[in-house]
Amino acid sequence: MMSANYKKSLRFLGAAGTVTGSRYLVEAGKRRILVDCGLFQGFKSLRDRNRKPFPVRPASIDTVLLTHAHLDHSGYLPALVRAGFSGKVHCTQATEDLCGLILPDSGHIQEEEARYAKRKGYAKHKNPTPLYTLNDAKAALKRLTPHPFGRRIDLGDGITATFIPAGHLLGAAQIRLELGDRIVHFSGDLGRQADPMMAPPSLFTVQMYWFASQLMATGLTRKSTRKPNSPHF
């Protein structure tokens, strides 16, 4: 087991200055854990960020944790896998099921858009290519590993993750990440307390935590829009 005093950091790689492209990189000792792997959506200036090289080598990431299946939280997974990520993607069962529908559809749509852009000649490039393909999405789905709510997942070196109900949609989770003497609690997208279709998000209580959520406009997230921020905790 790794010492509780190993160096830990949290970097905001997306959902900072905007509510899309959720990506948080937690580094603990020699471990790299990516929480959410979302697409940037909306304005072209945001979508263009999907084409930029990932801030760290995808092959250097050990594990991905998904809060839920919406594309701004899961939609970059096929590109990450194609670029070299080969670890497990941990999620809830319903998130795996929904990703099985959403990610292949996203790859198919991107292929169709690339063909249409080439046919109509409005792309900047002579041969426009999709960010990823249907086959890339299918390859990414093989990396998904489902877990029930409330059960600790051993990520190695004394690091554990637990999925906690978040409401929002089927399978949506908050993630409690335990790193030795520190706890990082990621809210993901939270549902409402009174929803006719979904159970409300579960409450949580921790003594030591860093709270990361694209729903909160903190000074930390604003700072990270200029340069990926790496607070140590």
Q: Say which CATH homologous superfamily is assigned.
A: Ribonuclease Z/Hydroxyacylglutathione hydrolase-like
Q: What's the number of domains?
A: 1
Summarize model confidence as the mean pLDDT.
Answer: 85
Strand-residue proportion:
15-25%
Helix- and strand-based class? alpha/beta
Provide the CATH topology.
Answer: Metallo-beta-lactamase, Chain A
How do the strands and helices of this protein lay out in sequence?
Layout: E1 8-12, E2 24-28, E3 31-35, H1 44-47, E4 63-65, H2 71-74, H3 77-82, E5 88-92, H4 93-120, H5 134-141, E6 144-147, E7 153-156, E8 159-165, E9 173-179, E10 182-186, E11 209-212, H6 219-223
Parallel strand pairs: 3-4, 4-5, 5-6, 10-11
Antiparallel strand pairs: 1-2, 2-3, 7-8, 8-9, 9-10
Description:
With 233 residues, the protein is α/β, with parallel strands linked by helices. 24% of the residues lie in helices and 23% in strands. Strands 1-2-3-4-5-6 form a six-stranded mixed beta sheet. It has a five-stranded mixed beta sheet with strand order 7-8-9-10-11, with no helix packed on it. InterPro entries: MBL, Metallo-B-lactamas, RibonucZ/Hydroxyglut_hydro. This is MBL fold metallo-hydrolase. It holds the Pfam family Lactamase_B. Residues 20-232 form the Metallo-beta-lactamase domain.
